[in-house]
Design goal:
Chain B: Keywords: Thiamine pyrophosphate. Chain B: Belongs to the transketolase family. Chain B: Residues 13-268 form the Transketolase N-terminal domain. Chain B: This is Transketolase. The complex is a heterodimer of chains A (317) and B (281). Chain A has 317 residues and is an alpha/beta fold. Helices cover 38% and strands 20% of the residues of chain A. Chain A has helices at residues 12-26, 44-49, 61-71, 84-87, 92-101, 129-134, 147-158, 205-218, 236-246, 261-272, 292-298, 303-315; strands at residues 10-11, 30-34, 54-56, 77-83, 107-111, 140-143, 164-167, 172-173, 189-192, 197-201, 223-227, 230-232, 249-256, 277-282. A 7-stranded mixed sheet of chain A has the order 3-2-4-5-7-6-12, sandwiched between helices. In chain A, strand 6, helix 7 and strand 7 form a beta-alpha-beta unit. In chain A, helix 1 runs parallel beside helix 7 (147-158) and helix 8 crosses helix 12. The longest helix of chain A is centred in the first third of the chain and has 15 residues, at 12-26. Chain A is globular and about 60 Å long. Chain A starts with 9 loop residues before the first strand and ends with a helix. With 281 residues, chain B is of the alpha/beta class. Chain B has one domain: 3-Layer(aba) Sandwich (Rossmann fold). Helix content of chain B is 39%, strand content 10%. The chains are: A alpha/beta (317), B alpha/beta (281). Chain A binds chain B through residues 34, 36-40, 56-60, 62-63, 85-86, 90, 118-124, 286, 288-291, 294-295, 298, and chain B through 25, 27-28, 69, 94-98, 100-103, 105, 107-108, 116-121, 150-151, 153-155, 182-184, 190-191. The structure holds thiamine diphosphate and magnesium ion (MG). Magnesium ion binds at residues 148-150, 177, 179, 181-182 of chain B.
C-alpha cells in the first residue's frame, strides 16, 4: 500500500486564498469579487496586493455573478468568492443565463460547502450544490480534497477557458497530496491499487477513503482508491477501468446522494458496465448545527461508514 | 404595561444570555444580537399582542419575523424568557440535535419561529406574504420584521420594498438595525447604503427614526409611534440606530464581534459589565 501522510492540518479555503494570491502575481487578467466574506474566503491577501483588481460587492451575490459575467467581456478572468450556498442556489439563474448559457469564463469559488461548515447549521450547509452545478450544461465542477489540491486547482482553472464551479470547505483537514502536483481538470487520481473494491471519493471524503482502505487492508481486502476532484466532466475511463477489475464500487462525498458524484458514477456504470454500488452521502436530508466531526459521524460520512459500505458492496458481487 | 424596571432588568439578562450562548460553543453572532436587545425586549414584552400558546398560523395575534437570522442568540433568549420554551434550552444553542440551530429554523419545531432565516435578504418578502394573509383573513394584527442594514444590500429586499408600497401593505412594520457594520467592515466601507431613509421614502414607505436604539424607553415609545402609523395605506419602516455589541465596552463600535465569540477571560469581563438580574439559565 502507498503511504499517505498528513503534513499538517490546513483548511481547503486557505488553499484557494493562497492560490489566488499566486495567480494575482502571475496573471494580470485575474480579478476577484467577494460578497462581504473576504476573511472567510481568505481573499485578504489578493485584496491587499491588488486593490484595483478586487471588487467588494457587498451582500449581493446575484449582482456579483452578473458583474463577473460582464467582466469576462474584454478578457478578465473573474473569481467570485462566497459560501457554497450563496454561490449556487442563491444565484442559480444568474449563473445559468449570464455565465453558463452565455459561455462566460467565470470561476465560481465556493467555500464552507457541506456539513463541515458546522455550527451555523442547515441554512448555510448546502448539500445540493454539486447537483445544481453539474446539471448546468457546459459547467465544469471541481471539489478538491485538501489544501494543496485546492491551491493547485485554483491556479489551474485560470488557464482553462470556460465556467468552473470550484467547491471547498471551512475546517482544517489532513493535507496529504503533493504540493507540486500537476492538477489536471477532468483527470482522476489513483491513490491506492487494489482488486476487491473501487472507492471513488471526492472532497473531504478522500482522506476518509484512504483511512478506510488501510483498515480494509488489515482485513485482507484491497481497494482501488480514486480521488475524483473533477465531478464534471467525469473521468469515465478511470472509473470503468477500475470497476472492471474490482467488480464493485463505493462512492463517497459530502453531499446528498441525489445529484452527487455517486449518481454520476451510477449513470456511467449502468450504461457501460453495471456493477453493485453503495453510496456514502447524505440521505436526502438537510444538515444541522454541530461540530464538523459530530456531523460527519451522525450522517455517516467517514472512514468507518466507508468500511461498512465496502463490506456490504463486496457481499453483493 | 409591563413594569419598566423589570424590562430593563430583562435587557441586561438577555445580554448575559447572548454572551453565554456564544461563548459556550465558541461560535455565533454576539455583535448584532447585543445591539438589538432593547428592541427585542420591547417588542415581545410591550408591543406585540401575542397569544399564550404558539401556533404556526398565529391567528389573531401580531407576528414577528427575523430576517437577519444570524442574530439568533438575542431571538432565542427573548423567546425563552417570554415563555415559548424552557430557558434551560439556551444551553443547547448550536449543539448537535438541538432545536436552537445556528440560525433560526422551523425544521426542529422551535416555538416562536415561523420561518427559517440565515441566508440574508428574504425576511421582508415573507413578512409581506404573512401580512397579506392577515388581510385576507380579516385579522387586524400587525407583522413585525427585523433586518440588518448590511442585509439591505441584497436586491430581493428592494423587490419586496417596492411591492409593499405599491400594494399598500400597511399592516407591516419593518425595522432596520442601523448599526453601520457588517462582516468585512462598516457598511460605508463595504458598500455604502446611501440615504436609507430617502430610499424607503422614494419607494413609498412611511419612514421614521429611532435615534436612540439602545435606550429602552426610546425604543418603546418609538415603536408605539410606528404602530400608530399602520393602517394608513403605507408600509412602515423604522430605522433603529443601534450600536453593534452594545453593553459590552470592548465589543462596541466595531465589526470585530459580528460573528466571534468571547474567550473565557473576555466573557468574564463582559458579564461583569452586565450583572445578573433575573438569573442565568
Ligand atoms: C445571502 C447571504 N449572503 C451572505 C451571508 C453571510 N453573512 C452573514 S451575516 C452577514 C453580514 C450582515 O450584515 P448586517 O445585516 O449589517 O448584520 P450585522 O453584521 O449588523 O449583524 C453576512 C455577509 C448570509 N448569511 N447570507
Ligand atoms: Mg449591520
Amino acid at each position: 500500500m502507498k503511504k499517505y501522510t498528513d503534513t499538517g492540518k490546513k483548511d481547503t479555503r486557505s488553499g484557494f486564498g493562497d492560490g489566488l494570491t499566486e495567480l494575482g502575481k502571475k496573471n494580470k487578467n485575474v480579478v476577484a469579487l467577494c460578497a462581504d466574506l473576504t476573511g472567510s474566503l481568505k481573499m485578504d491577501e489578493f485584496k491587499a496586493n491588488h486593490p484595483e483588481r478586487f471588487f467588494q460587492v457587498g451582500i449581493a451575490e446575484a449582482n456579483m455573478i452578473g458583474m463577473a459575467a460582464g467582466m469576462t467581456i474584454g478578457g478578465k478572468i473573474p473569481f467570485t468568492g462566497t459560501f457554497a450556498n450563496f454561490s449556487t442556489g442563491r444565484v442559480y439563474d444568474q449563473i445559468r443565463q449570464s455565465v453558463a448559457y452565455s459561455g462566460k469564463n467565470v470561476k465560481i469559488c465556493a467555500s464552507h460547502a457541506g456539513l463541515t461548515l458546522g455550527e451555523d447549521g442547515a441554512t448555510h450547509q448546502i448539500l445540493e450544490d454539486i447537483g445544481l452545478m453539474k446539471m448546468l450544461p457546459e459547467m465544469t465542477v471541481i471539489n478538491t480534497c485538501d489544501y494543496n489540491q485546492t491551491k493547485a486547482a485554483t491556479i489551474a482553472i485560470a488557464d482553462f477557458e470556460g465556467p468552473v464551479y470550484l467547491r471547498f470547505g471551512r475546517p482544517k483537514v489532513a493535507n496529504f497530496t503533493p504540493a507540486d502536483q500537476n492538477f489536471q481538470i477532468g483527470k482522476a487520481v489513483q491513490l491506492q491499487e487494489g482488486t476487491d473494491v473501487t472507492i471513488v471519493a471526492t472532497g473531504h471524503l478522500v482522506w476518509e477513503a484512504l483511512q478506510a482502505a488501510e483498515t480494509l487492508n488489515e482485513k485482507g481486502i484491497t481497494a482501488d482508491v480514486i480521488n475524483i476532484h473533477t465531478i464534471k466532466p467525469l473521468d469515465d475511463a478511470a472509473i470503468l477501468k477500475s470497476v472492471k477489475k474490482t467488480g464493485c464500487v463505493v462512492t463517497a462525498e459530502e453531499h446528498n446522494f441525489l445529484g452527487g458524484l455517486g449518481e454520476s458514477v451510477a449513470r456511467l456504470l449502468s450504461t457501460q458496465h453495471p456493477a453493485p454500488q453503495e453510496f456514502i452521502a447524505t440521505n436526502d436530508t438537510f444538515g444541522e448545527s454541530g461540530t464538523p466531526e459530530q456531523l460527519m459521524d451522525k450522517y455517516g460520512l467517514n472512514a468507518s461508514a466507508i468500511v461498512a459500505a465496502v463490506n456490504k458492496v463486496i457481499a453483493r458481487k | 404595561m409591563a413594569d419598566y424596571k423589570a424590562l430593563e432588568d430583562l435587557v441586561v439578562q438577555v445580554r448575559r444570555d447572548i454572551l453565554r450562548q456564544v461563548h459556550k460553543v465558541n461560535s455565533g453572532h454576539p455583535g448584532g444580537s447585543l445591539g438589538c436587545a432593547e428592541f427585542f425586549v420591547a417588542l415581545f414584552n410591550e408591543l406585540m399582542e401575542r397569544n399564550d400558546t404558539f401556533e404556526m398560523d398565529g391567528i389573531d395575534e401580531d407576528l414577528f419575523f427575523l430576517s437577519n437570522g444570524h442574530i439568533s442568540p438575542v431571538f432565542y433568549s427573548v423567546l425563552a424568557r417570554a415563555g415559548y420554551f424552557p430557558v434551560e434550552e439556551l444551553n443547547t444553542f448550536r449543539l448537535l440535535n438541538s432545536r436552537l440551530q445556528g440560525h433560526p429554523t422551523t425544521h426542529e419545531g422551535l416555538p416562536g419561529v415561523r420561518i427559517a432565516s440565515g441566508s440574508l435578504g428574504q425576511g421582508i418578502s415573507v413578512s409581506i406574504g404573512a401580512a397579506l394573509t392577515k388581510k385576507l383573513n380579516n385579522d387586524q394584527h400587525i407583522i413585525y420584521t427585523l433586518c440588518g442594514d448590511g442585509e439591505l444590500q441584497e436586491g430581493q429586499n428592494w423587490e419586496a420594498i417596492m411591492y409593499a408600497a405599491g400594494n399598500k401593505v400597511d399592516n407591516l412594520i419593518v425595522t432596520v438595525d442601523l448599526n453601520g457594520q457588517q462582516i468585512d467592515g462598516s457598511t460605508d466601507n463595504v458598500l455604502p447604503l446611501g440615504n436609507v431613509k430617502s430610499k424607503f421614502e422614494a419607494f413609498g414607505w412611511d419612514v421614521m427614526d429611532i435615534e436612540k436604539g439602545n435606550d429602552l424607553k426610546a425604543v418603546m415609545s418609538g415603536m408605539k409611534k410606528a404602530k400608530e402609523k399602520t393602517g394608513n395605506g403605507k408600509p412602515v419602516c423604522v430605522l433603529l440606530h443601534t450600536v453593534m455589541g452594545n453593553g459590552v465596552d470592548f465589543m462596541m463600535h466595531t465589526h470585530d464581534w459580528h460573528g466571534k465569540a468571547p474567550n473565557d477571560e473576555q466573557l468574564e469581563n463582559a458579564l461583569a459589565q452586565n450583572p445578573v438580574t433575573l438569573g442565568d439559565y
